[in-house]
Amino acid sequence: DGRKPANPAFWWVNGEGEEVKLSFEELGSLSRKAANVLSEVCGLQRGDRVVAVLPRVPEWWLLNVACMRAGIVLIPGTSQLTAKDILYRLQASKAKCFVTDDERAPAVESVLAGSQFLKSKLIVGKGSRDGWLNFKKLL
């Protein structure tokens, strides 16, 4: 029809060549779903805090947009944080939700006793873990 194809709103490629491309419509839809996960499933409200310790996977970016949509404060952390660093951030921020992947979840679990404000934990990955909600499945 002679029209130029739309540029993607999001284009992610990892070291193995795997890629994720999302149009503006897809990014909008997924970010609304992710915001609903945070607000409805995790029970977060505007102004609540979420700590995210993830490598730069597509879900990291989606979580950023979802938090902006829902008015939730995102506290990003490098994937190099130790359990002690994680505990400090949880206590100082009074975060109600923590988002991480399979690799970093044990560090979070090791300090849960010291985080009295944490209500929910989301894991980004294909597997499951006791006490964690699977972010991908909820989307």
TrEMBL record:
One of its GO terms (cellular component) is mitochondrial matrix. SUPFAM superfamilies: Acetyl-CoA synthetase-like. The keyword DNA-binding does not apply. One of its GO terms (biological process) is acyl-CoA metabolic process. Residues 3-124 form the AMP-dependent synthetase/ligase domain. It catalyses: a medium-chain fatty acid + ATP + CoA = a medium-chain fatty acyl-CoA + AMP + diphosphate. Its EC number is 6.2.1.2. Pfam families: AMP-binding (PF00501). GO terms for molecular function: ATP binding; fatty-acyl-CoA synthase activity; medium-chain fatty acid-CoA ligase activity. PANTHER family: ACYL-COENZYME A SYNTHETASE (PTHR43605), ACYL-COENZYME A SYNTHETASE ACSM5, MITOCHONDRIAL (PTHR43605:SF6). Belongs to the ATP-dependent AMP-binding enzyme family. This is medium-chain acyl-CoA ligase. The lineage of its organism: Eukaryota, Metazoa, Chordata, Craniata, Vertebrata.
